[in-house]
Amino acid sequence: AQYANCIKLISAKTSLFAVLSTGINMDPADGVTPELPIKYSRASANAMYMYNLFSTQDYVESITETRKVCDGDNDGPHCWMSGVAYDYWEQYIIIEEWLLALSGIVVAISFAAAALFFWLDFGALVPSMVGGLVVALTSAATLLTVTGFASLSNVNLCGLSAMSCIMSAGFAVEYSVHVVHRFMAGAQEVSASPHDRALAAMDGLFVPATMAFATSAVGILFLTLSEFEFVLIYFFTPLLTVLLVTYFFGVFTLPVILCRMMGMACASK
Questions:
Q1: Is omega for the bond preceding 127 within 30 degrees of 0, making it cis?
Q2: Which residue, 136, 127, 125, is CA-closest to 176?
Q3: 70 with 48: CB under 8 angstroms?
Q4: Which one-letter DSSP state was computed for residue 14?
Q5: Which residue, of 45, 76, 117, 202, has the fewest CB within 10 Å?
Q6: Residue 175 in contact with residue 246, Cβ under 8 Å?
Q7: Is 180:115 a contact under the CB 8 Å cutoff?
Q8: CA separation, residue 27 to residues 31, 34, 44 (Å)
Q9: C-alpha–C-alpha distance, residues 175 and 152, integer Å
């Protein structure tokens, strides 16, 4: 309310309150006398302050309310607020929409790339589409799980944590493409059942996948030596969550999905 009153006073038909904005020089000797009512001014940081901002939610509410005052009143000034609060906390207003949009794009690309790869290698359209769908579902499930666990770990959804969520899709594709490819290659044996193909795939990929997980985990563990809590919250925790979730889906969940979804959809090369 105080911000709205200040903005309205700046744009009022009296020049008395225009001095609230340091962007306007009211000294006629300098040859600068604005026409009234004032329609354009700069409400600088030297003249306006925000108080009682302790949490991220406080910043988000302040940004939302000030934007509403500037953009919602057709008769008032049309301002674009800037400053430290807007530069660093405005991301929290749009981060959920951007994360959802990027997740959809990543899942779609995962499906298209995997299906094309399987089709070029095996030459069978339907099994390739099903394999691409399995990869896409694994990516989507990984994104959802990583985002949920990050929230449960008290990691605020911001640009840094969202980066880890999107990165998890790449890890998921890395695991799932190899497993699905080995599963589809087992279809060359006519007598092989989906269960046998899943066992054969994991027999050859379980050790490499586990070694990849272990080496990545060792690299991330060094982040615990950091003295900054920020690094532990926004880098170590999300990255460790990404590793655990993608490894679980790629090694334990994916073979079950393959047995259920692929079934007899795989044809010989």
A1: no
A2: 136
A3: no
A4: S
A5: 45
A6: yes
A7: no
A8: 7, 10, 18
A9: 25
